[in-house]
Amino acid sequence: MVDLGCGNGAVGPALKHRFDRTLIGIDASPAMLEAAAQEGVYDALKEADIATWQADGAQPALIFSNAACHWVPDHQGLFARLAGMLAAGGTLAVQMPRQYNAPSHALLRSISEQMFPDRFDFAGWTAPVHAPTDYLGFLATLGAADVWETQFMQRLDPVPDGHPVRGFTQATAMRPFLEKLSDDERGAFTAAYDAALASAYPTDETGAAIMPFRRVFFTVTV
Question: 50-78 pLDDT, tens per residue?
């Protein structure tokens, strides 16, 4: 089995317990691989980019990727390549967030474009994760495909600084925006984002907020 984009190994124990096969973790971050090693369930951990990774040795029975492939372009080419590495009867199983048109993500684009038009221009922008019907259309040519989408209702607890939704996005969706800003600009941008989030995701008397979050899942067995 391959845990592709394993990160800190959060799903490694569940994979190992469920299937009890050789488990290989792949990630581009040495720090994440070091953290994954602490789980004690991976038979091997290898540094590689999902976009260029190639299986070596035996063909995998399972390539599993949780919340990682949305960072990689050309999904039709990517998933065809991954499915082509599987052993006969093997499965590619993928989960990706599809939250890009929700306020949590759309506000990042609109506020950055308004405040810093010299650095942010989303004309012609398209979301990196497609509609489930698009995935089923090309995955069905690779094998037996099953595609579904779920919207989770997440209750986000109060955070020490800012809106709870910002606490959720600042290490992921918000990060590419902050990387293009100076310290002063980051402060102004964050304040504007917090204010907009307060309107989009009202907090309750405890300071918690409900954030619906959409994810797309698929399996394809070759």
Answer: 999 999 888 999 999 999 999 999 999 99
| HEC sequence for 143-189 | CEEEEEEEEEEEEECCCCCCCHHHHHHCCCCCHHHHCCCCHHHHHHH
pTM here is 0.90
- Distance CA(5)–CA(67), nearest Å, equals 8
Beta bridge partners of 141: none
Q: Are 109 and 138 in contact (CB under 8 A)?
A: no
What are 141-144's contacts with CB under 8 Å, separation 24+? 142/79, 142/80, 142/83, 142/92, 142/220, 142/222, 143/83, 143/220, 143/221, 143/222, 144/220, 144/221
Note the pLDDT of residue 20: 85
